[in-house]
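hiii so my PI (J.) wants the whole complex modelled not just the main chain, which honestly fair. so below is everything: two entries, each one labled with what it is. i double checked the lines twice but i was tired so who knows lol
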Amino acid sequence: MNPVVVENLTVAYQKKPVLSNVSFEVPEGKLIGIIGPNGAGKSTLIKAILGLIPKAAGEIKIYDKKYRPKDRVVGYVPQRGSVDWDFPTNALDVVLMGRYGHVGWFKRPGKKDTEIAMECLKKVGMEKYANRQISQLSGGQQQRVFLARALAQDAKVYFMDEPFVGVDAATERAIIELLNELKRQGKTVLVVHHDLQTVKEYFDHVMLLNVNTIAAGPTEEVFTLENLTRTYGGKLSFLEKDQLIVEQK
Amino acid sequence: MSYESWILIVGSLAGVTCGITGCFLILRKLSMLADAISHTVLLGIVLAFIVSQSMSGIYMLIGAVVVGLLTAVGVQMLHHAGIQEDASIGVVFTFLFAVGVILITVFADDVHLDVDHALMGEITFVPWDLVQWGFLPELPKAFLMLSTVLVINLVIIGLFYKELKITSFDPQMAAAIGLPVLLIHYLLMGLVSITTVASFDSVGAILVVAMLIAPGASAYLLTNKLSIMLLLSALIGVSAAVIGYYLASWLDVSISGSMATVNGIIFALVFLFSPTKGLLSRKFTMKKLKMD
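here's the output for the full assembly
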Protein backbone atom coordinates (compact mmCIF):
# COMPACT_ATOMS: atom_id res chain seq x y z
CA MET A 1 0.00 0.00 0.00
CA ASN A 2 1.40 3.39 -0.96
CA PRO A 3 1.67 5.74 2.00
CA VAL A 4 0.72 8.86 0.04
CA VAL A 5 -1.63 9.00 -2.93
CA VAL A 6 -2.71 12.34 -4.42
CA GLU A 7 -5.27 12.47 -7.21
CA ASN A 8 -6.20 15.53 -9.24
CA LEU A 9 -5.45 17.95 -6.44
CA THR A 10 -6.30 21.57 -7.19
CA VAL A 11 -5.65 24.44 -4.79
CA ALA A 12 -6.41 28.08 -5.47
CA TYR A 13 -5.67 31.32 -3.63
CA GLN A 14 -8.38 33.82 -4.48
CA LYS A 15 -9.08 32.67 -8.06
CA LYS A 16 -5.58 31.84 -9.22
CA PRO A 17 -4.75 28.12 -9.13
CA VAL A 18 -1.52 27.39 -7.25
CA LEU A 19 -1.78 23.67 -7.85
CA SER A 20 -3.74 22.29 -10.72
CA ASN A 21 -4.65 18.64 -11.20
CA VAL A 22 -1.66 17.32 -9.30
CA SER A 23 -1.52 13.53 -9.13
CA PHE A 24 1.25 11.32 -7.78
CA GLU A 25 1.93 8.37 -5.53
CA VAL A 26 4.92 7.70 -3.34
CA PRO A 27 6.18 4.22 -2.41
CA GLU A 28 6.85 3.23 1.18
CA GLY A 29 10.31 3.47 2.72
CA LYS A 30 11.79 5.94 0.25
CA LEU A 31 13.21 9.45 0.31
CA ILE A 32 11.23 11.57 -2.09
CA GLY A 33 12.31 14.99 -3.29
CA ILE A 34 9.65 17.49 -4.31
CA ILE A 35 11.41 19.67 -6.87
CA GLY A 36 10.32 22.74 -8.76
CA PRO A 37 10.97 26.46 -9.29
CA ASN A 38 9.85 29.20 -6.88
CA GLY A 39 6.10 29.58 -6.95
CA ALA A 40 5.63 26.03 -8.24
CA GLY A 41 3.43 25.24 -5.24
CA LYS A 42 5.81 22.91 -3.38
CA SER A 43 4.98 24.15 0.14
CA THR A 44 1.33 24.51 -0.84
CA LEU A 45 1.30 20.85 -1.84
CA ILE A 46 2.51 19.75 1.59
CA LYS A 47 0.10 22.07 3.37
CA ALA A 48 -2.80 20.84 1.27
CA ILE A 49 -1.93 17.21 1.99
CA LEU A 50 -1.86 17.99 5.73
CA GLY A 51 -5.16 19.85 5.50
CA LEU A 52 -3.62 23.18 6.55
CA ILE A 53 -5.14 24.91 3.53
CA PRO A 54 -8.41 24.01 1.83
CA LYS A 55 -8.33 22.21 -1.49
CA ALA A 56 -10.61 23.17 -4.36
CA ALA A 57 -10.76 19.64 -5.72
CA GLY A 58 -9.04 16.27 -5.60
CA GLU A 59 -8.40 13.27 -3.38
CA ILE A 60 -5.64 12.77 -0.83
CA LYS A 61 -5.05 9.44 0.83
CA ILE A 62 -2.52 8.64 3.54
CA TYR A 63 -2.20 4.88 3.91
CA ASP A 64 -5.41 4.46 1.99
CA LYS A 65 -7.39 6.68 4.33
CA LYS A 66 -8.41 10.30 4.43
CA TYR A 67 -5.79 12.15 6.49
CA ARG A 68 -6.79 12.49 10.11
CA PRO A 69 -4.32 14.06 12.54
CA LYS A 70 -5.43 11.78 15.35
CA ASP A 71 -4.13 8.73 13.48
CA ARG A 72 -0.70 10.24 14.15
CA VAL A 73 0.95 8.69 11.11
CA VAL A 74 2.30 11.98 9.80
CA GLY A 75 5.21 14.11 11.03
CA TYR A 76 5.70 17.65 9.79
CA VAL A 77 8.68 19.98 9.61
CA PRO A 78 7.51 23.46 8.57
CA GLN A 79 9.89 26.00 7.07
CA ARG A 80 12.22 27.29 9.75
CA GLY A 81 11.26 30.88 8.94
CA SER A 82 7.59 30.25 9.64
CA VAL A 83 7.92 30.65 13.42
CA ASP A 84 9.19 33.37 15.75
CA TRP A 85 12.42 32.04 17.27
CA ASP A 86 12.29 34.74 19.96
CA PHE A 87 9.46 32.80 21.62
CA PRO A 88 10.25 32.28 25.31
CA THR A 89 11.08 28.57 25.27
CA ASN A 90 14.05 26.22 25.01
CA ALA A 91 15.08 23.48 22.58
CA LEU A 92 13.77 20.59 24.70
CA ASP A 93 10.41 22.29 25.07
CA VAL A 94 10.06 22.70 21.31
CA VAL A 95 10.85 19.01 20.77
CA LEU A 96 8.29 18.13 23.44
CA MET A 97 5.66 19.83 21.25
CA GLY A 98 6.11 16.87 18.94
CA ARG A 99 4.59 14.77 21.74
CA TYR A 100 1.48 16.94 22.21
CA GLY A 101 -0.52 14.88 19.72
CA HIS A 102 0.21 11.76 21.79
CA VAL A 103 -0.41 13.40 25.15
CA GLY A 104 -3.99 14.50 24.39
CA TRP A 105 -6.17 17.20 25.91
CA PHE A 106 -5.90 18.43 29.52
CA LYS A 107 -2.68 16.52 30.19
CA ARG A 108 0.92 17.60 30.40
CA PRO A 109 3.76 15.74 28.69
CA GLY A 110 5.16 13.26 31.25
CA LYS A 111 8.55 11.84 32.12
CA LYS A 112 8.33 9.34 29.29
CA ASP A 113 7.72 12.14 26.79
CA THR A 114 10.70 14.07 28.11
CA GLU A 115 12.88 10.97 27.71
CA ILE A 116 11.69 10.53 24.13
CA ALA A 117 12.32 14.22 23.42
CA MET A 118 15.87 13.99 24.83
CA GLU A 119 16.50 10.91 22.71
CA CYS A 120 15.36 12.76 19.61
CA LEU A 121 17.64 15.68 20.46
CA LYS A 122 20.48 13.19 20.77
CA LYS A 123 19.69 11.76 17.33
CA VAL A 124 20.24 15.20 15.79
CA GLY A 125 23.32 15.86 17.92
CA MET A 126 21.65 18.59 19.98
CA GLU A 127 21.40 17.04 23.45
CA LYS A 128 23.90 19.54 24.84
CA TYR A 129 21.60 22.38 23.83
CA ALA A 130 18.43 21.01 25.43
CA ASN A 131 18.06 23.93 27.83
CA ARG A 132 19.25 26.59 25.43
CA GLN A 133 16.81 29.38 24.59
CA ILE A 134 15.88 28.82 20.94
CA SER A 135 16.82 32.32 19.77
CA GLN A 136 20.39 31.61 20.87
CA LEU A 137 20.73 28.69 18.44
CA SER A 138 22.24 29.02 14.97
CA GLY A 139 20.06 28.48 11.90
CA GLY A 140 21.37 24.95 11.47
CA GLN A 141 20.76 24.13 15.12
CA GLN A 142 17.22 25.48 14.92
CA GLN A 143 16.60 23.28 11.92
CA ARG A 144 17.87 20.26 13.86
CA VAL A 145 15.51 21.09 16.72
CA PHE A 146 12.64 21.13 14.22
CA LEU A 147 13.75 17.72 12.92
CA ALA A 148 13.98 16.37 16.44
CA ARG A 149 10.46 17.58 17.06
CA ALA A 150 9.25 15.70 13.98
CA LEU A 151 11.07 12.56 15.20
CA ALA A 152 9.29 12.93 18.55
CA GLN A 153 6.01 12.70 16.65
CA ASP A 154 6.98 9.09 15.93
CA ALA A 155 5.25 9.03 12.57
CA LYS A 156 5.33 6.77 9.51
CA VAL A 157 5.37 9.48 6.86
CA TYR A 158 7.33 12.72 7.21
CA PHE A 159 6.80 15.95 5.31
CA MET A 160 9.70 18.40 5.44
CA ASP A 161 9.54 21.88 3.97
CA GLU A 162 12.97 23.06 2.80
CA PRO A 163 15.00 21.56 5.68
CA PHE A 164 18.28 22.34 3.94
CA VAL A 165 17.72 26.07 3.49
CA GLY A 166 20.20 28.27 5.33
CA VAL A 167 21.98 25.48 7.19
CA ASP A 168 25.71 24.86 7.47
CA ALA A 169 27.42 21.92 5.74
CA ALA A 170 27.66 19.91 8.97
CA THR A 171 23.93 20.23 9.57
CA GLU A 172 23.16 19.30 5.98
CA ARG A 173 25.18 16.08 6.39
CA ALA A 174 23.56 15.37 9.75
CA ILE A 175 20.11 15.84 8.26
CA ILE A 176 20.75 13.59 5.29
CA GLU A 177 22.15 10.89 7.57
CA LEU A 178 19.04 11.14 9.67
CA LEU A 179 16.81 10.87 6.60
CA ASN A 180 18.64 7.73 5.56
CA GLU A 181 18.23 6.32 9.04
CA LEU A 182 14.48 6.98 8.85
CA LYS A 183 14.42 5.22 5.49
CA ARG A 184 16.15 2.17 6.97
CA GLN A 185 13.39 2.05 9.57
CA GLY A 186 10.87 1.84 6.74
CA LYS A 187 9.60 5.41 7.05
CA THR A 188 8.66 7.48 4.05
CA VAL A 189 10.08 10.99 3.84
CA LEU A 190 8.94 13.72 1.44
CA VAL A 191 11.26 16.69 1.26
CA VAL A 192 10.70 20.00 -0.49
CA HIS A 193 14.09 20.70 -2.00
CA HIS A 194 15.55 23.13 -4.47
CA ASP A 195 19.24 22.42 -4.80
CA LEU A 196 19.30 20.50 -8.06
CA GLN A 197 22.93 19.48 -7.63
CA THR A 198 22.22 17.20 -4.69
CA VAL A 199 18.99 15.66 -5.93
CA LYS A 200 20.56 12.52 -7.43
CA GLU A 201 22.68 11.97 -4.36
CA TYR A 202 19.90 12.42 -1.78
CA PHE A 203 16.65 11.10 -3.19
CA ASP A 204 15.36 7.72 -4.37
CA HIS A 205 12.33 9.26 -6.00
CA VAL A 206 11.52 12.72 -7.23
CA MET A 207 8.37 14.54 -8.00
CA LEU A 208 8.81 17.44 -10.41
CA LEU A 209 6.23 20.11 -9.82
CA ASN A 210 5.28 23.35 -11.48
CA VAL A 211 1.62 23.98 -10.69
CA ASN A 212 1.00 20.66 -12.47
CA THR A 213 2.85 17.42 -11.89
CA ILE A 214 5.54 17.34 -14.55
CA ALA A 215 6.84 13.88 -13.68
CA ALA A 216 7.13 11.58 -10.68
CA GLY A 217 9.03 8.36 -10.16
CA PRO A 218 12.47 6.88 -9.46
CA THR A 219 15.17 9.56 -9.66
CA GLU A 220 17.24 7.94 -12.43
CA GLU A 221 14.17 7.69 -14.66
CA VAL A 222 12.54 11.00 -13.92
CA PHE A 223 15.34 13.43 -13.16
CA THR A 224 16.26 13.96 -16.80
CA LEU A 225 17.26 17.00 -18.75
CA GLU A 226 14.05 16.88 -20.70
CA ASN A 227 11.85 16.78 -17.61
CA LEU A 228 13.85 19.51 -15.92
CA THR A 229 13.47 21.71 -18.96
CA ARG A 230 9.73 21.20 -18.81
CA THR A 231 9.68 21.97 -15.09
CA TYR A 232 11.80 25.08 -15.13
CA GLY A 233 10.74 26.35 -18.56
CA GLY A 234 12.09 29.79 -19.37
CA LYS A 235 14.43 29.80 -16.39
CA LEU A 236 16.66 27.37 -18.24
CA SER A 237 19.59 29.72 -18.72
CA PHE A 238 20.59 29.72 -15.11
CA LEU A 239 19.99 26.02 -14.99
CA GLU A 240 22.69 25.21 -17.48
CA LYS A 241 25.45 24.75 -14.96
CA ASP A 242 23.29 22.33 -12.99
CA GLN A 243 22.35 20.43 -16.10
CA LEU A 244 25.97 19.63 -16.80
CA ILE A 245 26.26 18.14 -13.37
CA VAL A 246 23.07 16.22 -13.89
CA GLU A 247 24.37 14.82 -17.15
CA GLN A 248 27.76 13.88 -15.75
CA LYS A 249 26.29 11.93 -12.89
CA MET B 1 -12.24 46.91 55.01
CA SER B 2 -10.95 50.39 54.47
CA TYR B 3 -11.57 52.44 51.37
CA GLU B 4 -7.88 52.40 50.51
CA SER B 5 -7.42 48.66 50.78
CA TRP B 6 -10.39 48.00 48.46
CA ILE B 7 -8.82 50.16 45.79
CA LEU B 8 -5.48 48.43 46.23
CA ILE B 9 -7.12 44.99 46.04
CA VAL B 10 -9.21 45.80 42.99
CA GLY B 11 -6.25 47.45 41.24
CA SER B 12 -4.03 44.46 41.97
CA LEU B 13 -6.66 42.00 40.78
CA ALA B 14 -6.96 43.93 37.52
CA GLY B 15 -3.15 43.91 37.29
CA VAL B 16 -2.87 40.13 37.75
CA THR B 17 -5.79 39.24 35.48
CA CYS B 18 -4.74 41.55 32.66
CA GLY B 19 -1.05 40.71 33.09
CA ILE B 20 -1.52 36.96 32.67
CA THR B 21 -3.92 37.16 29.74
CA GLY B 22 -1.81 39.83 28.06
CA CYS B 23 1.24 37.55 27.76
CA PHE B 24 -0.50 35.46 25.13
CA LEU B 25 -1.57 38.58 23.24
CA ILE B 26 2.05 39.66 22.98
CA LEU B 27 3.32 36.25 21.89
CA ARG B 28 0.59 36.05 19.25
CA LYS B 29 1.15 39.66 18.14
CA LEU B 30 -2.47 40.48 18.87
CA SER B 31 -2.04 43.69 20.86
CA MET B 32 -4.10 45.69 18.37
CA LEU B 33 -6.92 43.17 18.41
CA ALA B 34 -6.97 43.44 22.20
CA ASP B 35 -7.18 47.19 21.86
CA ALA B 36 -10.17 46.74 19.55
CA ILE B 37 -11.94 44.31 21.88
CA SER B 38 -11.37 46.52 24.89
CA HIS B 39 -13.44 49.18 23.13
CA THR B 40 -16.11 47.09 21.46
CA VAL B 41 -17.09 45.37 24.73
CA LEU B 42 -18.72 48.71 25.50
CA LEU B 43 -21.39 47.68 23.02
CA GLY B 44 -21.69 44.37 24.86
CA ILE B 45 -22.32 46.14 28.13
CA VAL B 46 -24.97 48.40 26.65
CA LEU B 47 -26.69 45.48 24.91
CA ALA B 48 -26.58 43.50 28.15
CA PHE B 49 -28.30 46.41 29.88
CA ILE B 50 -30.98 46.73 27.19
CA VAL B 51 -31.74 43.02 27.31
CA SER B 52 -31.60 42.51 31.08
CA GLN B 53 -32.54 46.02 32.25
CA SER B 54 -29.84 45.71 34.91
CA MET B 55 -26.15 46.34 35.38
CA SER B 56 -25.69 42.89 36.86
CA GLY B 57 -22.20 41.44 36.49
CA ILE B 58 -23.14 38.18 34.87
CA TYR B 59 -25.05 39.87 32.04
CA MET B 60 -22.15 42.21 31.47
CA LEU B 61 -19.74 39.28 31.17
CA ILE B 62 -22.02 37.50 28.70
CA GLY B 63 -22.50 40.68 26.66
CA ALA B 64 -18.74 41.22 26.60
CA VAL B 65 -18.02 37.71 25.41
CA VAL B 66 -20.63 37.95 22.65
CA VAL B 67 -19.41 41.29 21.30
CA GLY B 68 -15.73 40.46 21.91
CA LEU B 69 -16.07 37.31 19.84
CA LEU B 70 -18.10 39.19 17.24
CA THR B 71 -15.12 41.54 16.94
CA ALA B 72 -12.62 38.68 16.62
CA VAL B 73 -14.76 36.79 14.11
CA GLY B 74 -15.47 39.95 12.09
CA VAL B 75 -11.78 40.78 11.87
CA GLN B 76 -10.95 37.19 10.92
CA MET B 77 -13.60 37.11 8.20
CA LEU B 78 -12.60 40.42 6.61
CA HIS B 79 -8.95 39.42 6.75
CA HIS B 80 -9.75 36.07 5.19
CA ALA B 81 -11.65 37.83 2.40
CA GLY B 82 -8.47 39.66 1.44
CA ILE B 83 -8.60 42.86 3.54
CA GLN B 84 -5.39 43.66 5.38
CA GLU B 85 -5.50 42.65 9.01
CA ASP B 86 -4.89 46.12 10.49
CA ALA B 87 -7.55 47.61 8.21
CA SER B 88 -9.98 44.86 9.24
CA ILE B 89 -9.34 45.65 12.89
CA GLY B 90 -9.76 49.37 12.26
CA VAL B 91 -13.12 48.96 10.52
CA VAL B 92 -14.72 46.41 12.84
CA PHE B 93 -13.47 48.09 16.00
CA THR B 94 -14.67 51.60 15.21
CA PHE B 95 -18.00 50.42 13.83
CA LEU B 96 -18.97 48.32 16.85
CA PHE B 97 -17.67 50.95 19.27
CA ALA B 98 -19.64 53.67 17.47
CA VAL B 99 -22.84 51.63 17.73
CA GLY B 100 -22.11 51.29 21.44
CA VAL B 101 -21.67 55.06 21.81
CA ILE B 102 -24.93 55.76 19.98
CA LEU B 103 -26.86 53.30 22.13
CA ILE B 104 -25.41 54.82 25.28
CA THR B 105 -26.59 58.28 24.29
CA VAL B 106 -30.05 56.90 23.42
CA PHE B 107 -30.42 55.11 26.73
CA ALA B 108 -28.40 57.67 28.66
CA ASP B 109 -31.16 58.38 31.16
CA ASP B 110 -31.41 54.76 32.25
CA VAL B 111 -27.83 53.56 32.13
CA HIS B 112 -25.44 54.43 34.86
CA LEU B 113 -22.72 54.69 32.25
CA ASP B 114 -21.32 57.48 30.20
CA VAL B 115 -18.66 57.46 27.53
CA ASP B 116 -16.08 59.19 29.72
CA HIS B 117 -16.58 56.66 32.45
CA ALA B 118 -16.28 53.79 29.98
CA LEU B 119 -13.10 55.14 28.48
CA MET B 120 -11.29 56.25 31.61
CA GLY B 121 -12.88 54.17 34.36
CA GLU B 122 -13.20 55.43 37.90
CA ILE B 123 -11.55 53.22 40.45
CA THR B 124 -12.25 55.83 43.13
CA PHE B 125 -15.93 54.85 43.20
CA VAL B 126 -15.29 51.11 43.24
CA PRO B 127 -15.51 50.65 47.05
CA TRP B 128 -19.05 52.11 47.11
CA ASP B 129 -20.52 50.12 44.26
CA LEU B 130 -21.55 47.16 46.39
CA VAL B 131 -23.53 44.08 45.40
CA GLN B 132 -24.57 40.93 47.16
CA TRP B 133 -23.93 37.56 45.52
CA GLY B 134 -25.40 34.39 47.02
CA PHE B 135 -24.32 33.78 50.60
CA LEU B 136 -21.51 36.32 50.40
CA PRO B 137 -21.67 39.58 52.32
CA GLU B 138 -22.06 42.82 50.37
CA LEU B 139 -18.84 43.34 48.42
CA PRO B 140 -17.65 45.78 45.77
CA LYS B 141 -18.92 44.65 42.37
CA ALA B 142 -15.55 45.23 40.68
CA PHE B 143 -13.90 42.96 43.25
CA LEU B 144 -16.39 40.14 42.63
CA MET B 145 -16.19 40.44 38.87
CA LEU B 146 -12.41 40.56 38.75
CA SER B 147 -12.09 37.60 41.13
CA THR B 148 -14.51 35.56 39.01
CA VAL B 149 -12.70 36.43 35.81
CA LEU B 150 -9.30 35.72 37.36
CA VAL B 151 -10.47 32.25 38.37
CA ILE B 152 -11.94 31.59 34.90
CA ASN B 153 -8.71 32.74 33.23
CA LEU B 154 -6.51 30.65 35.49
CA VAL B 155 -8.63 27.54 34.97
CA ILE B 156 -8.74 27.94 31.17
CA ILE B 157 -5.04 28.75 30.86
CA GLY B 158 -4.23 25.84 33.19
CA LEU B 159 -6.36 23.39 31.21
CA PHE B 160 -5.19 24.51 27.78
CA TYR B 161 -1.65 25.57 28.63
CA LYS B 162 0.14 23.41 26.08
CA GLU B 163 -2.44 24.11 23.39
CA LEU B 164 -2.12 27.86 23.95
CA LYS B 165 1.65 27.51 23.86
CA ILE B 166 1.92 25.53 20.62
CA THR B 167 -0.72 27.56 18.79
CA SER B 168 1.16 30.72 19.79
CA PHE B 169 4.57 29.39 18.75
CA ASP B 170 3.75 27.35 15.65
CA PRO B 171 0.12 27.44 14.52
CA GLN B 172 0.88 25.39 11.40
CA MET B 173 2.33 22.54 13.39
CA ALA B 174 -0.57 22.82 15.83
CA ALA B 175 -3.04 22.50 12.97
CA ALA B 176 -1.07 19.59 11.52
CA ILE B 177 -1.43 17.61 14.75
CA GLY B 178 -5.14 18.30 14.68
CA LEU B 179 -5.59 21.13 17.17
CA PRO B 180 -8.50 23.51 16.45
CA VAL B 181 -6.27 26.56 16.09
CA LEU B 182 -9.05 29.02 15.30
CA LEU B 183 -11.19 27.79 18.19
CA ILE B 184 -8.30 28.30 20.61
CA HIS B 185 -7.85 31.79 19.18
CA TYR B 186 -11.51 32.56 19.92
CA LEU B 187 -11.20 31.03 23.37
CA LEU B 188 -8.38 33.46 24.13
CA MET B 189 -10.38 36.35 22.68
CA GLY B 190 -13.24 35.34 24.98
CA LEU B 191 -10.87 35.59 27.94
CA VAL B 192 -9.70 39.00 26.74
CA SER B 193 -13.32 40.15 26.51
CA ILE B 194 -14.29 39.17 30.05
CA THR B 195 -10.97 40.48 31.38
CA THR B 196 -11.60 43.84 29.76
CA VAL B 197 -15.16 44.16 30.95
CA ALA B 198 -14.25 43.21 34.51
CA SER B 199 -11.51 45.85 34.52
CA PHE B 200 -13.79 48.41 32.88
CA ASP B 201 -15.21 50.00 36.02
CA SER B 202 -11.79 50.42 37.51
CA VAL B 203 -9.53 51.48 34.71
CA GLY B 204 -11.67 51.98 31.61
CA ALA B 205 -11.26 50.88 28.01
CA ILE B 206 -8.14 52.84 27.14
CA LEU B 207 -6.07 52.15 30.22
CA VAL B 208 -7.00 48.49 30.29
CA VAL B 209 -4.88 48.13 27.16
CA ALA B 210 -1.90 49.40 29.15
CA MET B 211 -2.61 46.81 31.83
CA LEU B 212 -3.00 44.05 29.24
CA ILE B 213 0.07 44.79 27.17
CA ALA B 214 2.71 46.58 29.26
CA PRO B 215 3.31 43.93 31.99
CA GLY B 216 3.59 41.12 29.43
CA ALA B 217 5.86 43.21 27.21
CA SER B 218 8.13 43.88 30.19
CA ALA B 219 8.10 40.23 31.31
CA TYR B 220 8.95 39.14 27.77
CA LEU B 221 12.21 41.07 28.01
CA LEU B 222 13.13 39.49 31.35
CA THR B 223 12.85 35.75 30.76
CA ASN B 224 13.18 32.95 28.26
CA LYS B 225 10.49 30.75 29.74
CA LEU B 226 6.77 31.07 29.17
CA SER B 227 5.72 30.02 32.69
CA ILE B 228 8.11 32.56 34.24
CA MET B 229 6.87 35.19 31.82
CA LEU B 230 3.29 34.66 33.04
CA LEU B 231 4.41 34.90 36.66
CA LEU B 232 6.52 38.02 36.14
CA SER B 233 3.77 39.66 34.15
CA ALA B 234 1.31 39.10 37.00
CA LEU B 235 3.83 40.50 39.49
CA ILE B 236 4.52 43.57 37.37
CA GLY B 237 0.77 44.10 36.96
CA VAL B 238 0.29 44.14 40.74
CA SER B 239 3.32 46.32 41.37
CA ALA B 240 2.16 48.88 38.85
CA ALA B 241 -1.28 48.98 40.50
CA VAL B 242 0.10 49.42 44.01
CA ILE B 243 2.83 51.90 43.12
CA GLY B 244 0.36 53.70 40.86
CA TYR B 245 -2.13 54.09 43.69
CA TYR B 246 0.36 55.60 46.14
CA LEU B 247 1.78 57.85 43.46
CA ALA B 248 -1.72 59.08 42.68
CA SER B 249 -2.53 59.80 46.35
CA TRP B 250 0.76 61.58 46.77
CA LEU B 251 0.38 63.75 43.67
CA ASP B 252 -3.42 63.93 43.93
CA VAL B 253 -4.03 62.77 40.34
CA SER B 254 -6.17 60.15 38.56
CA ILE B 255 -5.55 56.73 40.08
CA SER B 256 -6.08 54.66 36.94
CA GLY B 257 -4.00 57.10 34.91
CA SER B 258 -1.23 56.82 37.43
CA MET B 259 -1.38 52.99 37.39
CA ALA B 260 -1.05 52.94 33.61
CA THR B 261 1.78 55.45 33.74
CA VAL B 262 3.71 53.31 36.20
CA ASN B 263 3.22 50.37 33.82
CA GLY B 264 4.80 52.46 31.09
CA ILE B 265 7.69 53.50 33.33
CA ILE B 266 8.36 49.89 34.37
CA PHE B 267 8.42 48.88 30.72
CA ALA B 268 10.82 51.69 29.85
CA LEU B 269 13.18 50.66 32.67
CA VAL B 270 13.08 46.99 31.65
CA PHE B 271 13.56 47.91 28.01
CA LEU B 272 16.72 49.80 28.92
CA PHE B 273 18.16 47.71 31.72
CA SER B 274 17.04 44.09 31.23
CA PRO B 275 20.15 41.96 31.89
CA THR B 276 19.79 39.89 28.71
CA LYS B 277 17.46 41.63 26.30
CA GLY B 278 17.77 45.26 27.42
CA LEU B 279 18.99 47.98 25.10
CA LEU B 280 22.08 48.69 27.20
CA SER B 281 23.13 45.07 27.60
CA ARG B 282 22.71 44.49 23.87
CA LYS B 283 24.78 47.59 23.09
CA PHE B 284 27.40 46.40 25.54
CA THR B 285 27.56 42.92 23.98
CA MET B 286 27.90 44.41 20.51
CA LYS B 287 30.74 46.59 21.69
CA LYS B 288 32.46 43.63 23.29
CA LEU B 289 32.10 41.60 20.12
CA LYS B 290 33.65 44.44 18.13
CA MET B 291 36.60 44.68 20.54
CA ASP B 292 37.21 40.95 20.29
